[in-house]
Amino acid sequence: MGFVAWVIFGAIVGWAANLVVGGRSRQRQGCLISVLVGIVGAALGGLIYRLATGQAKTFDFDFPSFGVAILGAVVLLAILRLISGRTRRPSDRW
After folding, report:
1. What's the whole-model pTM score?
2. Backbone Cα Rg of the chain
């Protein structure tokens, strides 16, 4: 995929992962953060896929690639939210 395709793919994946992780205290993230989460999440999803199956995953605009990328982005957001939740003071959460 080209650079523009990665940005579009990353934006869609980042937005979808944010919807999945969501929750009551859902934090809104900007477009740039969504793109970064989507691209890094796609790379993390490819790593998870390779570790689970032993095969490399090539990312194209298809549903299997989208699913692997969302999986990685959800894992990334969950880890980031766990870390940011631990660093906040209890009074900051409400």
Report:
1. 0.75
2. 14
How far is the C-alpha of 94 from the C-alpha of 16, rounded, in Å? 26
Q: How far apart are CA 27 and CA 41, in angstroms?
A: 18
Token couple for 81: 């939210």
Instruction: Report residues of the chain scoring pLDDT below 50.
Output: 24
Tell me how far apart the alpha carbons of residues 59 and 79 are, in angstroms, rounded to a whole number. Answer: 23
Report d(CA 94, CA 84) in Å as an integer.
14
Euclidean distance between CA atoms 46 and 71, whole angstroms: 9
Q: How many CB atoms lie within 10 A of CB 21?
A: 18
Identify whether the C-beta of residue 45 lies closer than 8 Å to the C-beta of residue 69.
yes
